[in-house]
Amino acid sequence: MKRDPYISILLCLTLLMSLSSPVVASDRDSSAASPALSKKTMTVRVGSSKVLTMKNTSYKVTWSIKSGKSYVKLTNKKKKKVTVVGKAKGTAVVKGVIKYPSGTKKTYTCKVKVKAEQWECPICGFMNTSHYCSNCGYERPTDDGDDTEATATPAASATPTATPAPTADTMAEALSNRVIVMQINSIFYYSLQLYANAGATAFYNGVSNGTIKSFNMGPVGEEEKIAYLTTGLTTYVSSSRYVEKGDVFLYGSYGLKLATTTHETGAYPTRIGRINQNLDTLDRALSQNVDGKTIVEFKLYV
User: Where are the domains of the chain?
Assistant: First the structure.
């Protein structure tokens, strides 16, 4: 059968058009799963960093900060990951954009919360973010930087100056009118006059409601006795580390100490109270123990 020449020409043109037409690339990734960020929300601390990754894609991701440029910065931008660094406390949004061959763009975002940097308390070792230690109340030390003003070194004195003995005024805060009865080894009784601070108030409340009652205090060297509370108390750290014989004070929030000598303790204490009478019998009271343990009881003064 003779073929129609017009049909042959039409077939040839159709074939030529199909060969010359551009191939439209697919926006689909090779992965069966849809692209997604490794985290939708992220928390970093000032000065620290975390890596954000785009999963399930073979295309390049363009990374940028959508909002909060004052709080974060982006480093080590790679094809599918970026490092987020905390600059200041606040909230930011990081975005990753995938541009497909067709020209279509898809945006993915991650909310970043930046927390204040931590500091280690030099007194108790607790990690903190606030200005005062959450465990012992110690104020955060100031950093020694290059902008610190230099001070002249005082000339050496020909005659050494004796260090003055600590006094009640330099060693402690003001005493209150509250008094607790302190009984040692069921034999010796003392009046413990409390200080006027938040720690002493918390201690008084504990004795009043019965949560602070009796302790078996063990030795800490030859200068202190210690027992540990089951519930931490509010701290009010003193500016001096000196304690007097007969002082009761906190070590951190949980350590309850009794000074058996006047000395400089290893940490800034929260002063609870001071034995204000019959102090000359304290050594004899503490010697009445078993295996170095001292039973100390606290009662309200009636």
Answer: 36-115, 173-300
CATH code for the structural domain at 173-300: 2.40.100.20
Percentage of the residues of the chain whose pLDDT score is greater than 90: 31
Q: Write down the CATH number for the domain with range 36-115.
A: 2.60.40.10
> Considering the entire predicted model, what is its pTM?
0.45
What is the DSSP track for 55-102? ES--S-EEEEEEE-TTTEEEES--SSEEEEEE-SSEEEEEEEEEE-TT
For 218-246, what is each residue's pLDDT tens digit? 888 889 988 899 888 988 888 888 888 99
C-alpha 259/C-alpha 273 separation (Å) is 11
